[in-house]
Amino acid sequence: MTPTLRTERLLLEPYVPADEDAFVAMFQDPRVTRWMGDGTATEPEDRALFGRIFSKVYAQDLFAVWAVRRDGELVGHAEIKPTDTVSGHELIYALVPAVWGAGLGRELAEAIVGHGFDALGLTEVHATVAQDNLASLAVLRKLGFEHVRDIAEDDGGTTRVLTRRRPPVTPPRPSA
Hints:
The protein is built from 5 helices and 8 strands, in the order ββαααβββαβαββ. The protein is an alpha+beta fold. Helix content is 30%, strand content 30%. The strands form 2 sheets. It has a 5-stranded antiparallel β-sheet, sandwiched between helices. A hairpin with a 5-residue loop joins strand 7 (146-152) and strand 8 (158-165).
């Protein structure tokens, strides 16, 4: 089950059916989808994707998918899911342009990574980012992600694979 997470300024919670129009609007914005998968899909495809969040992802408890809210408004989308591309769990997130530049990407990514380490018990979290997506690469580097390899894409582009490893846990020192 997708848990509810809170950061200083954001609420991450499962989507509700009433989020459909805002979800579709976000994913129909080419500024948002420019760096995501195959880019902007059709509106019916985005509506079908939203439906699969309920009928497949939530129904089968496949992985965590969040509606990202700020002051009650849907401002983003986030996931942490297993993927063969990185042989582990991948962090995925997007924010609407109206909130870009406010540090929310870093806050959001940190919350998802924390969930991966603490709730899921992961030892590492991965991200795949187009090499030209300098903003996302900078956010992830600030969070301690390191570039581990590149993937050559069919369209001639390059996707960077970045990994953040969980810091080793230091056992408490015995008292004397």
